[in-house]
Design a protein that fits this description.
The protein is of the alpha+beta class. The protein has helices spanning 2-13, 19-38, 42-46, 67-78; strands at residues 56-59, 62-65, 87-97, 102-112, 119-129, 132-141. The chain has a single domain (17-141), classed as Nuclear Transport Factor 2, Chain: A (Roll).
Length: 142
Amino acid sequence: MSGFVVCFVAMFTGQVFDSATEKKAIQKVLDDQAAAWNKGDLRGFMAGYWESPDLSFYSGNNKTKGWQATLERYQKTYQGEGKEMGKLSFSEMSIDLLNGEHALVKGRFTLELQKKGPTGIFTLILKKVPAGWRIIHDHTST
């Protein structure tokens, strides 16, 4: 079946689509995000997001629109006075390629903090842009 998908995508896009390679590239984006977070590098973490005013981030009852607004939300929540970033990890992940340019990632995040460490689930939509795979929509629940 996967050979059919490769041929089908290649026929309509002119590109050969290797799902294993694409999934590894998506996994690397998330691994790089966790590594940057764990070094306290919020801008490095944000490199996994699409740097666009159309980026959407939903968490709890709040909607954030745009890369800059999402960065500012993270800064306020995790780098404000008396705040800590802690250690971030992802687990229970699944990566589903929707086509050659979009993917759906589901998983769980855990944030180890000195006091209380939140955990929750997330759903990400990624798009392959010239810079590589980037998160265009993040819906995170704790």
